[in-house]
Amino acid sequence: DSGVTQTPKHLITATGQRVTLRCSPRSGDLSVYWYQQSLDQGLQFLIQYYNGEERAKGNILERFSAQQFPDLHSELNLSSLELGDSALYFCASSVAGSDRYEQYFGPGTRLTVT
Amino acid sequence: AQSVTQLGSHVSVSEGALVLLRCNYSSSVPPYLFWYVQYPNQGLQLLLKYTTGATLVKGINGFEAEFKKSETSFHLTKPSAHMSDAAEYFCAVSAGTNAGKSTFGDGTTLTVKP
What we know:
Oligomer: heterodimer
Largest interface: A-B, 26 and 24 residues
Distance between the termini of chain B: 41 Å
Number of strands of chain A: 11
Largest sheet of chain A: 7 strands, mixed
Order of helices and strands of chain A: EEEEEEEEEEE
Shape of chain A: globular
Order of helices and strands of chain B: EEEEEEEEEEE
Radius of gyration of chain B: 14 Å
Helix content of chain A: under 10%
Number of helices of chain B: 0
Shape of chain B: globular
Strand content of chain B: over 45%
Structural class of chain A: mainly beta
Strand content of chain A: over 45%
Structural class of chain B: mainly beta
């Protein structure tokens, strides 16, 4: 158990819909990262927040957005969903914003878009 | 900019044989290097990391990796494979910019034959 929690574990929804994925980091960690993992694209970094502020941005689509709240939990919002958005979405946390620190991954949310 | 290449998307070894998973990186600044393992239906878990200092790094479950700057490599090894080592392994590089962003390789699936 990494100490990172993600909800829900599974999500099935239809094209065009909007969903919210939630992540609670390990106690004491200030950074939260979001990743998308699919068979054809592998593990893709989406976005990082550090203490409530956006720190780094990766291959995140404009239809996707995220935020980190004052209690440090984070939400990833996916809208206008397409079949290709079906994937595992991981949240990870680390103690600080520096990339010398390892990331602790949650168990993931499996999103299926039908 | 940084990148990482994992040579061989699938590696198969017999139980008790040497495990060697290859990772080469590219970074314009001294890198931080990580190996993560992902078991089926789970998130990634840190195996080991290199930041500075000793170039031979020991991790969990008997794995180790050696940072070779001249070869821009960070190969993962284990002297004797166990059935429980079957998983997907990811090499990751960070550029030390405090941006918090790691670049992950495409992963290598390790199969252990009895």
